[in-house]
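Question (not urgent): is this output format expected?
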Amino acid sequence: MEKIELNIGDLANIKNILDVAIDRGSFKGKELQVVGATYDKLEDFITQNTPEQNSEVEETEETE
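Got this back:
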């Protein structure tokens, strides 16, 4: 069996799917607290694990 891996792009897609589902009212009121907490955790994880493009450009310019 092949090992399944997720990357930041996959997690960003999941976040976008949640955005669409929330906008369409797919969740019941009593579910929103769990959905919101999970969404916030996912968003924080993506932010913390996505390299900043500006920092990479600055580092490249400094080394040249």
